[in-house]
UniProtKB/TrEMBL annotation:
InterPro entries: Beta-grasp_dom_sf, Pro-tRNA_synthetase, Thr/Ala-tRNA-synth_IIc_edit. Transmembrane segments: none annotated. It comes from the Eukaryota. PANTHER family: LARGE RIBOSOMAL SUBUNIT PROTEIN ML39, MITOCHONDRIAL RIBOSOME PROTEIN L39/PROLYL-TRNA LIGASE FAMILY MEMBER. This is Large ribosomal subunit protein mL39. Its main location: mitochondrion. The keyword Ribosomal protein applies. GO terms for molecular function: nucleotide binding; RNA binding. Gene3D superfamilies: 3.10.20.30, Threonyl-trna Synthetase, Chain A, domain 2 (3.30.980.10). Belongs to the mitochondrion-specific ribosomal protein mL39 family. Keywords: Mitochondrion, Ribonucleoprotein, Ribosomal protein.
Length: 300
């Protein structure tokens, strides 16, 4: 059977995402107030009165300063990592996280994950409708590996294909365009049945959804939408594409790439070294093996 056009698949995924997003918003038909106790430098004791099921951590940041709006990447809501665009459903404590926090580990992990998501978004449309490209959930690669990855199932006609430097540059340009557009990563936690409907055109993605659902303590899976691209994510993403800055697609193995966040740009000589490292194949450690002790945090 002929496969549907990429635009048709994206349209279907968007429609299901929008329908479910509207359904969830309708669960809060009347405005009910919640108390949000802010935490963090200069914010301790600040109390915000927000709207239940409507206000997000980003809404809270807008009641503070321009700095909080522009630099916040993720939030901690009652000590749980929380995407900036995800509505708050109860009174809570809230801490806004940035790349320059004393411990930037959670935002670095979200950043790496988001770069993989951007890479996938570019790849999905890179081959137009000439070849089939199926995205899989991006593997959780340690930040210390020096590269982020995106797993794809390529059309069998591309089995012997090796991308040229110009192809890699073209993919990099596609990613930089998305970064320039400063698109929001919209989160949506859904039941597996909804996610299966979203990805009904992809058998590979259906398997990823089933796997994610089986590992989820709440029985839900996390979707994100960026522009017209809907993806499955294994953890929180950053708030918007504009938080990425230097970004380069460096190699095709299972596909690797390299990026730095907006607030931490590197000198071009350092960038060249990072690029060289990112060209190497990343081997994801076996999760069943005993993990090594975590490295000591380095200053940034």
């Amino acid at each position: 059977q002929s496969r549907p056009a990429t635009a048709e698949v994206r349209g279907h995924r968007n429609a299901v995402f929008s329908r479910e997003q509207s359904r969830q918003r309708a669960l809060f038909p009347r405005i009910e107030k919640i108390e949000v106790q802010m935490q963090g430098p200069g914010l301790d004791g600040t109390l915000l009165i927000m709207n239940k099921g409507m206000s997000t951590p980003l809404s809270c940041a807008r009641h503070l300063t321009e700095y909080h709006v522009n630099n916040s990447v993720l939030a901690l809501v009652d000590d749980e990592l929380w995407p900036l665009h995800k509505p708050l459903t109860d009174s809570c404590s809230l801490r806004l996280l940035t790349f320059k926090d004393d411990d930037p580990t959670p935002v670095n992990q979200a950043y790496w994950r988001s770069c993989s998501a951007l890479l996938g978004q570019v790849l999905e449309t890179a081959f137009k409708d000439d070849f089939a490209v199926e995205l899989l959930d991006s593997p959780e690669v340690p930040v210390t590996s020096g590269a982020f990855c995106c797993d794809v199932v390529l059309d069998p006609q591309l089995d012997s294909w090796t991308p040229s430097e110009e192809t890699l540059r073209s993919l990099t340009r596609g990613a930089l365009l998305l970064i320039h557009q400063d698109l929001a990563f919209e989160p949506l936690d859904v039941l597996p049945s909804v996610a299966l409907e979203v990805f009904s055109h992809s058998r590979s993605m259906e398997e990823e959804v089933e796997k994610a659902a089986s590992e989820s303590p709440r029985g839900t899976v996390q979707l994100y939408r960026c522009g017209d691209h809907v993806l499955l994510s294994s953890g929180p993403l950053i708030s918007r594409t504009g938080l990425c800055s230097q970004f380069e697609v460096t190699a095709f193995h299972s596909l690797g790439g390299l990026s730095l966040p907006l607030q931490l740009q590197a000198h071009h000589t350092v960038w060249r070294k990072l690029r060289k490292r990112a060209e190497k194949l990343v081997v994801v450690p076996d999760s069943s093996a005993t993990p090594p002790p975590p490295p000591a945090p380095s200053s940034q």
